[in-house]
Amino acid sequence: MASLSNLKESPGKCVENSVFHVKGARSLSWGMKDRLSRIFNPRTGKTVMLAFDHGFIMGPTSGLERIDLSIVPLIPYADCLMCTRGILRTTIPANSTKPICLRADTGTSILTDLNDNVPIDIEEAIRLNASALAVMVAIGDEAHEARTVANLSRIVDWANRYDIPVLGVTSIGKQVARDARYFGLASRICAENGANIVKTFYCEGFEKVVAACPVPVVIAGGKKLPEKEALEICYNAINDGAAGVDMGRNVFQSSSPVAMIQAVHAVVHQGLTPKEGFEMFRELAGGK
Ligand code: 5RP
Q1: Which helix (H) or strand (E) holds 86?
Q2: pLDDT tens digits, residue range 61-118?
Q3: Which residues are catalytic?
Q4: Where does this protein have coiled-coil stretches (predicted)?
């Protein structure tokens, strides 16, 4: 209960208790901030998102054939789950209480023409209580750039009505170099078009990508690497200003996914070095 002296203190003002912990979100509304705070830990400002949406373009990718067996046991260690509505409804327990970053575009597969996507209905996101919406943006891909930027813009318009943050996923065009100039350009385009979070790849000069992006940048893991290398990428990305990871294959294709996600979590949130993280991985994996 407030003491009498508290009541006398600046009675016409309300004490501002906190600086908001997510980059670029200070002036957003309460609903946006609440959802972003479910994704980005308010204590560390970081997140470990677990991505397992690969099936919508790749079918049953290695490690994702049985999501009930491979992904569900990892849920307690993730800060946020990124998946499609099909997997969410069929396989993810609704009482897991983890925030969901819902794949909000859908389209063509690896067998035809990647990135020919269209948005899903915003009402689906509301029904599924999404904390964020993920949209692919194919900068530098002549055939799909315009459509995917329009998808982002459309989804941002819808999501803003309901205070749902949007994650822009930068897809790599075949003709472009995987460098800081390209990832910086793609990330900035996502943010300029209204994305509240950007997902891109780690690269040399990554600090420039982060510095020029007005919203948090999280990194994708990409193809499976040896665990130590994947932890090094996480560590370097965090050191260069990333707000976390949105990782899939380097977790669920690991020899011990439960150990790997915990090691990634410790690198991201506790600042463990790659060596310490790898030791933790080996210990939890029982020496594997
Ligand atoms: C595809 C995605 C994937 O979820 C993303 O690439 C993360 O997975 P990985 O760490 O396996 O690369 O966004 O659109």
Answers
A1: helix 85-91
A2: 999 999 999 999 999 999 999 999 999 999 999 999 999 999 999 887 888 877 788 8
A3: 199
A4: none
| pLDDT one-digit tens code per residue, 130-155 | 999 999 999 988 888 999 999 999 99
* Residue 220 parent element (H or E): strand 217-220
State the pTM of this model. Answer: 0.94
Q: How far is CA 219 from the centre of its chain?
A: 8
Check residue 116 and give its pLDDT.
82
Going from the Cα of 194 to the center of ligand 1, the distance in angstroms, rounded, reads 21
Of the residues 49, 50, 101, 169, which should be mutated to test ligand 1's pocket, given the most ligand atoms within 8 Å of the CB? Answer: 169
CA distance 266 to 269: 5
Residue ranges around ligand 1 (CB below 6 Å) = 51, 53-54, 82, 136, 169, 220-222, 246-250
Going from the Cα of 63 to the center of ligand 1, the distance in angstroms, rounded, reads 13
Q: At what angle do helices 257-270 and 274-284 cross, to 10 degrees?
A: 150
DSSP for residue 183:
H
pLDDT of residue 1: 53
